[in-house]
Structure formats: C-alpha cells, structure tokens
Amino acid sequence: MEKIDASFFPAEREAELDVVGTSVQRADARGHVTGRTQFYEDVSFPGMLHLKMVRSTRHHALISNLDVAPAMQVPGVVRVLTHKDVPNNWYTILKLIGVEPDDEPVLPEDRVLFMGEQICAVLAETPQAALEGARRVVVDYEDLPAVFDVEEAMTSTPFKKQGTNYFVYEGHNCRRIRFGDVDKAFAEADHIIEHRYESSPIEHAPTETSGCIAKPEGNGRVTVYSNTQALYFTLDNMALILGVPFNKLRLVGGTVGGGFGGKVDVMVEPIAALGAMLTNRPVKYAYSRAEEMQVSSPRAAERIYIKDGVMKDGRIVARKVTLYVDAGAYCRHSTYGTTKAAAHMPGPYTIPNVHVDAYCVYTNRTPSSAMRGFGVTIGDFALESQMDQVARFLGMDPMQLRLINAYRDGDMKAHRKKVEGAALVEVIQAAAKQTGHSLPPQFASMSSLKQEAGHGQA
Amino acid sequence: MARLKGRGVAAVNYPTGMNLGGDPSQALVHATTTGSFVITLSSVDLGQGIKTVAAQICAETLGVPYDTVMVDTADTDTGPHCMGTFASRGTHRIGNAVIMAAREAREVLMSIAATELEVDAGDLVTDGKGRIHVNGAPDKGIAVLDVALAAHFKHGKTISGRGIFLKPKSEVVPETGEMDPDSCQAHACTVAEVEVDDETGEVAVVKMTNAYEIGRAVNPALAHQQIVGGAWMGISHALYETTEPYYPDRSHGPLDFSEYLMPGPGDLAEMDSVIIERPASNGPYGAKGIGEMTANSPIPAIANAIFDACGVRVTSTPITPEKILRGLDALRGQTN
C-alpha cells in the first residue's frame, strides 16, 4: 500500500537501516480492534461522583443572580462548585510560557462572554442526578451587546473587563511580518490580484470526548486519569489553578481516542480535581457529545485577504496578507496560533516583498484553540486557492506557477530564516509524475538543491 | 444536467515542532534481566503511533529486535517530562530523545559484551536479532540477554541511558517578525479530481493523488495511514464540516453526528500516495513531522478542482452545494 520513491535526493538518504523504515505493525492495533485497550473511562472507583456543568444560555451577559439551592434539593446532589471555590480563578494555559494577561476565569464571577460558558459545577452520585441538579440551578442574566464579526470586533467597544478586543503583540495590534517593500513592488508589478478567503469553525470530532477522573489518594495527593494530549502541561496548569505544589498531582494517561488538538486546553481536569479535593471522593467529568461540539474549543474561523503583485512571467513579487483569527471569547492558545500563522506566510514561496498583519481577535463565541495544522490549515486554503487564481489569471499551468515561485535551499524566508531542506519542487514533480502531467524540461529538471540565476529577485 | 469533471492542485509545507521551540521531551532507556529494553516516557499516543515509532527508533539505535523493546507511558510519577503530543513534534522530539538515551545504553551494553567476550568493544557489532558478535566472526558472540544478566549479577552495572531533545525558545522581533519558528519543514502536493453535479451542487471527490516529503518515513505504513486519514479530514473540512453553519451568525450549531456533517464511507476518494525522503539534519534518522499537515493540501486542491470543473470559485469553507448552486446561477446571469 505504501510507496516510497527513492529516486529523489539519492545522495542524502542514509544507507539501509534495520528497523527504521520498516512497516512493523503498530503496537496498539490488536488491543484497539479487540476492545482490550484501556482508556481513561475504563477505570472506575467506588463512591465516584459525576460532574455536570451549568452553562451560559447567553452570548454576553451580566449574571445578576446565581441560585444553586434548588440543585441541592435533588436527591444525590452532593455539592455545587462556583467561582468562590476555585483557589486561583484564572485559567492560565499560556502563563507557563509567559503569555499575559489572564483573561479567562475558571468559573465566571459576574458575567459570561459566550453561549456555553461554564458557570457552576454540580457534583452528584449519578450522572442523572448531576444533570437534574444542573437543570435546576437558576441563573438570572442581564444581556449585553454581543459582537460576532472579527472586523467589527476590531473597532467596537471592548467587551472584556480589561483590554481590547484583540491581543496586543509587544505594542502592536497584530503579529507583523515586514520584509522588503510591498508598496514599491505593487507599483512595479504587471498585475495586482487580490482576494478574500474565509472559513467557519470546525470541531475536532474525536471518537472519545474530553474527560477525566480525579481521585484523592490517602497521602493527600490527587491522581487524575485523563485523555489529555499533554500530561505535564495539564499537571502544571492544574497546580496553578488549585494552588497546590506540582508534586501533589499525578497524571495518568497516554492512550487517547483521537485528539487533533482538542485535548490540550486543560478544561476538565482542574475542576474535577477541585471537586475531588473538596469532597474527598473521586470525581468524573466527561463532556457529552453536545459539549464536545459546541463548548470545547473548535478550530478558529479565519478571514484572510491576500493581495499579490504579479509579473507576466508568473513571478510573484509582492504579497500582502491581512489575516483575522477568530479567537472567540478568550485567548486560550490563539495568540500562539496567530504567530504561527504569521510565520507560515507567504507559503512555501520565495517572494521578495512580504507584508503580514495577523490579528488575534476576540468575539462572543466559543473560544477557539489548537487544532491539527494550527495556524496553517486555513492559511493554506487561502494561499493555495490564491495560487490557483493567479495561475488562471495568467493562463498558466498551476504546477508551473508554483515551481517558478517555489522556495529552495539558501533562499530567505519572510521571517528571515534561511531555507534549508526544501522539497516543494520535488513533491510537485512527484505529483506530476504520478498523475501523468508532463512538465516542460526546464521544470522537470528543477531542484530544491541549487539556486538558479535570477530566482528570488524582484 | 451534468456531472462536471475537474482537477485541482495544491502544494504546501508544514513546520515540525512547537512554533518558536522551547518544547523539550525526555526519554529513559534501560535493559531488564529478561532480554528486553524499556523506554520510559510520559508521552501520549493519540492514535498516531508514537509508541510504535519510539520502539522502532530505540531498536534501531540499540541494534536489537523491535519486539524486545517495550514502551512505558504515560504516568507523571514515573515518566520523565514530555511537552505533549501536538505541533507535529512527537516523532521528532521524542525520537531524538530516544536516540540519545539508547546510544548511552548501547555504549554500556557493548562494553560489558566486550568484557564477557574478552575483546575490544570497538570490534563488536549487533546483529539486530538479539546477539552481539565480533565483526566478521558471527560465531564469536553473546546473546543480548546474557549481557544483561552479566551486567546485573556479575558486574553490578545498569545498562541504561538518558535522553532529551530541546530546541531552545526563539523570540520574535516585534517590528519585523524575524524569528526561528521551526526545526524543519515537510512538504506535500495533492492533485484532487472531482465531479460536480450542476443540478444539485453536490461534489464527489473521485481521486486524490498525494506526494509527501517527510524526511524519513520511520514506519511507512503509519505515515501512509496519516496521509489517507488526513486526506479524509481534508475532504470533510472542504465540503462538510462546521460547528457554525451560518458563521458569523451563531445559530443552528450541530449537537451530534446526525447534524454535524462528515463524509461517509461512500464519499471517500480513491487514494494514490507516494513518499519521498529528504532527511532533516536535526531529525531522528532524518524524520520530520507528518502528523498535522495531511489535511492541508487536500482542502485547496478540492476547491481548485471545483473551479476547474464548473467555473465557480468558492472562497469560503465548507464548500456546500448551496454555495456552488449560487455560483452557477451567477455564471448563468441569474440571481437568487
């Protein structure tokens, strides 16, 4: 089934290896297909409580009153957790890599910024009792104006207690790339080709929804069985929120029914562990499918404008990218993803003049966060649709247009890192070969290894 | 009424490792007295196969059979730190940490084998089948198990090693965006072939041809499965999926798989994929990350194929039948 074409880069491939490069059967395949693999939900403990969240039904509102007493009347309900129970009520996933400000409470104090935001947690003997308890909690809201469009949000009244509707990158309202002089190059270009691209939020849709079981141990520690994608990252953030030393926590996991970036947000573990610490009982918090789809962070919607200065021969001499990442109500990992999006521009092409403004924008929707191809997937949809539009405009073969502009070893990227290990030319050649698409000799003989005169020059 | 055929191309690159670096992972390797080696990690397998790939890399470096390497993960009380499974970093980061640990263990292994055989360690080779012998003299050798037993019971030595990989964190220059974001870049080109039904606006992806350059395919079958699985995700992203169908309006958000559209088995395309290899200087046996990138080139390749088929350029995803029909109406000079 798998094919390796060793005719490319023959001088760089290592001599034969014994195990690396062979298709041994994956270690966990038999366990998965026979139902014997143990996932976090396959452990269960006597006396385990179930946690269900009360969630905002409003896009943006003040909480004028929160009455949890009716939930406590439900048989089986043991406790309701509110913001007052959370030792350090800031959700801090990027704090460990120095990203400020804290913008998201673990449980909100006086307002909700998106529909589905968690408000308080009901702990009960059974999932049914927890759901019934959550249903009976009374939340009174005073609605506030909500903003849903990224470009509107840039200029509308800030909706958070502090700060702007966009993340501030060292004094700038966006992550910037500045390389060459796009305005000068646009003036000298034969054609200007400008288009807008957009995506909508996308769910990770894992087989296994996000969840964990937190179990208090006799020695004062808490063990958390979790399907997180990152055990220590989860442990560290939990310790900050719970106000306990790192070594009071133990995370166990390692086998996950699909992640795709949806299990790095550390949403379920801190609150489950808090419940376990306050009740001295094991607590399970697992997202329902509806929560996974509408409450867990999706892939961000993006809006991307690309303006290209193009010469008649197919050279792209300038590219200006204005990119909006819809972070939703809170930043989570979006500030990181927006910088990654900026670093990816202008795609795998050597363009001598590049200008990128990448905005991380807050709106009153479910916060977005990491997903497979974070910061890049939607950028590639825009970039490669744009390349096709340029090729069509010029009446040029789309593979040839890409080969003319492809980056190669020694070129300078827009973020000023020199290209090494390039192979864009070769994957295009390989795809041409596979599909029987014949390339003229000057394109068939191109290589990422050597620089040709004039390449990369305006 | 016709089914219009079209073909579209897209080519992409994708960075390996957490953006800007600063994402370490450790591995510990030790020999047991059963003839096996254990790699201890705190790394998570999401289904991508890190447990398999780590064991392959360890077996390669130690020179022992793959099925004598066990992976112990993931428990923070026993496993050393791993930043996590994301950013196409697992094979690269953990693979490098495993090589470093396995090299240290191999050095002890060979030195004890040399003592037992009364030869110079430099003259010894592993046969990859569980024996160590003098180079060119397969009969003058010793089983790896016997070396492990001798180390423990006779010499009082552990056959073990420690490994870590860290690309130190790079900072961004705020004015210009100058930065060192990645360890290496993998590459892909997809050619999508589609049929567009000009009456219903429905798109069938008939075939996807993919060429990937991923440094070195540590396990070609697993790499191939990433390509196929990612291409399915790409079809799904391009044509079906969203949690907000009327974005930026928040209404009609799906709550389950009967409302959240994804392709079914009958919607999946024929696949023809090839891998080419340009080893990365900093990758384990040259490997780059392939985990995330495999949905990326399929999406624009499909969008471009749809334009090729019917002349409608849809610049927002998902590319629904409604958008295509509106585009076809506009081409025909009608407005709805």
TrEMBL record, chain B:
Top-level taxon of origin: Bacteria
UniProt xrefs under InterPro entries? AldOxase/xan_DH_MoCoBD2 (IPR046867), AldOxase/xan_DH_Mopterin-bd_sf (IPR037165), N-heterocyclic_Hydroxylase (IPR052516)
Which GO molecular function entries does the Swiss-Prot or TrEMBL record give? oxidoreductase activity
- An example Pfam family from this entry, by short name, is MoCoBD_2
Ranges for domain Aldehyde oxidase/xanthine dehydrogenase second molybdopterin binding: 4-263
Q: What PANTHER family does the record tag this protein with? A: ALDEHYDE DEHYDROGENASE (PTHR47495)
Q: What is this protein called?
A: Aldehyde oxidase and xanthine dehydrogenase molybdopterin binding protein
- Species assigned in the record: Mesorhizobium alhagi CCNWXJ12-2
